[in-house]
Design brief:
The protein has helices at residues 2-19, 24-31, 35-43, 50-59, 72-98, 102-122. It is mainly alpha-helical. The longest helix has 27 residues, at 72-98. The radius of gyration is 23 Å and the shape is elongated.
């Protein structure tokens, strides 16, 4: 999987570099590596360290997740993470609510009712 990912990341890097009309040399100088290193990144021969990935993302003006967003393994993990985050957030909210005093709970309930009224008017 690692080799496949390196090739995938390399193709995303090359695609973005070409879209911006940049040479391998120009990108290499910007992140303080040789153009041969950029070649190796683009071919998937070498993996890209996290700091280099951050430098590349900044220089190429893309978010770091640009390099991961369509990779199948990342999409599967994204779905799993979203499900687990929903559970974690729910548990967190329950914990916080249980720590409120009665006055705070009353204010919270009124806020919820007001927001539900606003939502029902929109929907």
């Amino acid at each position: 999987m690692e080799d496949n990912f390196n090739k995938y990341l390399g193709s995303k890097l090359k695609l973005r570099r070409l879209a911006l009309g940049l040479t391998q040399t120009k990108v290499a100088k910007a992140i303080n590596v040789t153009f041969q290193q950029i070649q190796k990144y683009e071919k998937g021969t070498n993996g890209v360290s996290s700091i280099r990935l951050l430098q590349l993302a900044n220089y190429l003006k893309v978010p770091v997740n640009y390099f991961f967003e369509d990779y199948p393994e990342c999409l599967i993990n994204l779905e799993k993470n979203q499900e687990s985050h929903m559970t974690v957030n729910y548990n967190f909210l329950v914990k916080i609510y249980s720590e409120l005093n009665n006055d705070q709970k009353l204010k919270f309930s009124k806020s919820l009712q007001a927001s539900n009224i606003g939502i029902s008017k929109v929907g």
